[in-house]
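Reading a protein record of the kind used here takes only a little practice. Each token is a code from a learned vocabulary of local backbone shapes. With that in mind, consider the following protein and its fold in token form:
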Amino acid sequence: MILRAFLLLSVFSLMLIALAVPAQAQQYRWVDKDGKVRFTDTPPPPGAKDVRKSDAVAPASEPAPLPYALGELQKNFPVTLYTSPVCKEFCAMAREALNKRGVPFKEVQVWNVETLEELKQTAGSDTVPVLVVGRSAQSGFDQVRYDALLDSAGYPAVGVFAPRSQAAPPLPEGYEPPPVAEPAAPAAPAAPAQPPGPYDPSGLKGPEPKPGIYDPSGLKGPEPKPGPYGTPPERK
């Protein structure tokens, strides 16, 4: 009787251990060399990127991520984000939108003739950012249009996959930032005002004219003399 009770207790303990092991199994999330997100119960191979591990298991009400489905999406509708080293605010917003949704993507920096030509051929645009999903492209950053483009390809909505933290790539080898314009030199101070004088345009004037024969202010000739060619004599 005691032996039977001991066996039952042992079997019950083994069942509890067996149930507890999966709940405590460590889960790994990582990105392979092709940029695909993987979920495994074993440590990722050397060279894996963005490795994350967790002891928690998702509740039964939440479906576990499907790496195969994500791999099929990346295969049929690859996501590429075109940016440039000088694009800061809007390119960062586009990158954050993809990370928040948990979408793996390839980022291409446009910085020379070759990459600019690639952007024009792929998206028909010469400005960044540009989001390309499969064969569809969206120029500029627009959250609503980005979501619509990803929805049409079948990518899950925000919250289905864990957010990602893919940062901006390093600057391309050989890239030189554009020169910074030097500030303009301050204007030279204005010359001091000259005192008025004979040759000063602000008070130009000549010497005061003297009254005389040729003085316009008092023009007059010599007094006429009586005579045959002078003023006629007064008649009496």
Notes: Helices lie at 2-24, 67-76, 89-101, 113-123, 143-153. The first strand starts at residue 27 and ends at 31.
